[in-house]
């Protein structure tokens, strides 16, 4: 069993309930991971994912080996048949097969480069590990998805919702740096598995990959989208059509207290790190309806559920 | 309970005796830290602190997660109300609150930048963690203090002193690079809690922050200061008045065997790393009265005492 | 007991049999390392060594502290009597002595710089740790040797050989970057302890240090060397005479399927990382006779044997 995409969740409601159970007694399965080892490979920076996934593994009694692949290891080649006489020192074929022998689960973080849409969509790194690793692979944010985050988001919504079918709004917000679509993508895919009124709002032209959004409701008027919302999930992403570009930085898309008044006393969510007063104002983020810290807390239980499921297989 | 300053020591003599007890049986409290996690966040390089604090936590049975914040995480913002549309990706408010959820104690190393006296004196990073973390914070060297080092120094003095009230001299020595005042500051504050004849000696103009030295005896004549000393503690710091500048590199301040002859067969101390033949000559450092290696050894027990006290609360 | 050279192996056959036994029951000595700590110091990148040595220590129940010395610690000085008023912050004398107090075994990786033959041959870093550490030292690849790799190679040959006295060929192969001779050196020294027909093949001028090759058979005709071989071990090294230079990049030395036909159905070995289609073609590396992945797997048991022997002393 791998966990590299929301598609790996067979029953979201059940998973969320199981995660909430883990959260209540995080050390209950302390023996499950005895003598099992998680290797965490980072091709990009990480704070929450780094610490919460490690913590989850420790809660299960696992050993953890953390490696920053870029600075501590070798540059990898991903192309089949490559003549490796320039930059790359090692092919993913060997790297993934070898690392598999030193551990029981491999977790990988490898962001989108945002330079080459096709390459990012191919999830070169994650797919390489999936193909050549001989142990289960966990996605700690790939080029196109961040399923551990989306699972934590689902837990958070389950904890805070006050009605069976809440209105959940994913709103784009401006950001000074070009960011991947990964978090938004997995959130959309996760919401498609939920009983909810789900709305995506963003400026025209900022459509996510239509193969991911499918028939999810897109509303270009942010104010209209916010009406009666129970959850506002803010997130920036760079343009998917003009790939990796920032074509809009309109501050009117920043989530403000005034805009939150349009909602049904909505909870405010964000995956963090968040740019204060750019994505969202201090007033909202520091307000009583902000659940971003608890949402980050749920990262531990999201990861622990996934590791636990893999260990039990 | 936090440990971010010498002021957090309620009874120095008692602490030192407890640390010496720990040193004799370092594994006695191996169960105290079971299922507890220490997160160590480094904003700067570290050898002794990195390894001894980890070792201390392991002696207590704790889990440890180590993170080099600069290269592995996100650039932090510390200012309230900042519009985060440039370099910083995450505010200390979120970072400290989030990390707190993944561990039981946060230890932080964040050196003085030596560019902005006011900012360094405000201990921006350490204060940020103290303010927003929801678990205890331990200082692994901040901008203005290094209390784990000073506690190890106190242990070392207790172990080697041959009289109830030894003469202890903190001497400035030259150094090619501008260094923070942190180690000297905490040593001074720690000595102010000791029954000792304490003398600080340095070139005129190299006064430490007077709010720290208070009425400690300052002697500008190094030879005179060394007379009858039982302990010579050498340390460079950059100019505090002409903040962060090197205004003196007089080799006459180097601690030599000849100067040590002025003392009462004094033990030589330094926090390490030490520049040989700049701070102190090989002859002194390699001589029988040098206790720098044992002093470094005491870093483990200093850290272990602090972690143990926090865990017991 | 240290393990910094093949010379530290007192009985290769016995060691290999012990390692194979460990491989069958890797957790049998889980209690041996209880409350013992391994410090791994990296002055260079590492994938296999980093993870397999850690894994070996975990299999023995040890604690592990990993440190990238270059980026996380201080620049070290190795020269006796140095006046340290420029780049280096700490002398190996203090560093090695201090680290020894925080652990039970120190493992060190420090590649050849390939700039200064004499300095590389002196093994400045490794020798420094050997001289000043007060706990056992393990070589995780030094300037002139990689004995953990060679021990893994010996295990691999033992596992795959089909006759008492196999023909083993170490063949040079081209590489775009200047590489150290360390792996080749230790392999040669290890083979000299084996009952085997051992042949080294490389272009004229690419002779390894004659103090290491001694009377090992050197054959400049690669085809002739391959005849009837049972094992082909490919490895690039830069020129030892024109020290650290690349004076040959002849693609005819690449190991191909055609060349492998000259052998006695030989197994193909390489220490990894390997440049595909430069050192060896995909066809050979992906073929049924390639044992490079199992060879990498044996790194765990090679390291575990060494750690186990040290712990038992």
UniProtKB/TrEMBL annotation, chains A, B, C:
User: Which reactions is this enzyme annotated as catalysing?
Assistant: N(2)-succinyl-L-ornithine + carbamoyl phosphate = N(2)-succinyl-L-citrulline + phosphate + H(+)
Write down the EC number: 2.1.3.11
Its function, per the record, reads: Catalyzes the transfer of the carbamoyl group from carbamoyl phosphate to the delta-amino group of N(2)-succinyl-L-ornithine to produce N(2)-succinyl-L-citrulline. Is essential for arginine biosynthesis.
Q: Where is the Aspartate/ornithine carbamoyltransferase Asp/Orn-binding domain?
A: 183-307
Pfam families according to UniProt: OTCace, OTCace_N
Q: Which family does it belong to?
A: Belongs to the aspartate/ornithine carbamoyltransferase superfamily. SOTCase family.
Q: In which pathway does it act?
A: Amino-acid biosynthesis; L-arginine biosynthesis
- Assembly behavior: Homotrimer.
Q: Where does N(2)-succinyl-L-ornithine bind?
A: 141, 175, 235, 275
Q: Which gene encodes it?
A: argF'
Q: Which UniProt keywords apply?
A: Amino-acid biosynthesis, Arginine biosynthesis, Transferase
Aspartate/ornithine carbamoyltransferase carbamoyl-P binding domain boundaries: 5-159
Q: Which SUPFAM superfamilies match?
A: Aspartate/ornithine carbamoyltransferase (SSF53671)
Q: What is this protein called?
A: N-succinylornithine carbamoyltransferase
Q: Which residues bind carbamoyl phosphate?
A: 46-49, 74, 109, 146-149, 271-272, 299
Q: Name one GO molecular function term.
A: N-acetylornithine carbamoyltransferase activity
* Species of origin: Flavobacterium erciyesense
Record NCBIfam families: PRK04523.1
Family matches, as PANTHER family: ORNITHINE CARBAMOYLTRANSFERASE, MITOCHONDRIAL, ORNITHINE TRANSCARBAMYLASE, MITOCHONDRIAL
């Amino acid at each position: 069993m791998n966990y590299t995409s929301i598609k790996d969740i067979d029953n979201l409601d059940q998973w969320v309930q199981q995660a909430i159970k883990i959260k209540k007694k995080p050390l209950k399965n302390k023996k499950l991971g005895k003598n099992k080892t998680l290797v965490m490979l980072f091709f990009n920076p990480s704070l929450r994912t780094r610490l919460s996934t490690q913590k989850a593994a420790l809660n299960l009694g696992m050993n953890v080996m953390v490696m920053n692949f870029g600075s501590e290891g070798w540059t990898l080649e991903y192309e089949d048949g490559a003549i490796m006489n320039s930059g790359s020192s090692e092919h993913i074929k060997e790297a993934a097969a070898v690392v598999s022998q030193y551990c029981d689960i491999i977790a990988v973080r490898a962001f989108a480069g945002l330079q080459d849409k096709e390459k990012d969509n191919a999830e070169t790194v994650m797919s390489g590990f999936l193909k050549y690793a001989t142990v289960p692979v966990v996605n700690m944010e790939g080029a196109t998805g961040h399923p551990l985050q989306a699972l934590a988001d689902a837990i958070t919504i389950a904890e805070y919702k006050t009605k069976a079918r809440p209105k959940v709004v994913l709103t784009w917000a401006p950001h000074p740096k070009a960011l991947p679509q990964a978090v938004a993508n997995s959130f959309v895919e996760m919401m498609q598995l939920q009983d909810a009124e789900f709305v995506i709002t963003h400026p025209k032209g900022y459509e996510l990959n239509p193969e991911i959004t499918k028939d999810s409701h897109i509303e270009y008027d942010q104010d209209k989208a916010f009406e009666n919302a129970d959850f506002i999930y803010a997130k920036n992403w760079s343009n998917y059509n003009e790939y990796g570009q920032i074509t809009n930085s309109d501050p009117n898309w920043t989530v403000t207290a005034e805009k939150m008044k349009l909602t049904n006393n909505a909870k405010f969510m964000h995956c963090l790190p968040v740019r204060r007063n750019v994505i969202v104002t201090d007033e909202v983020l520091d307000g009583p309806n902000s659940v971003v810290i608890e949402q980050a807390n749920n990262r531990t239980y999201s990861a622990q559920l996934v590791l636990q499921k893999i260990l039990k297989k």
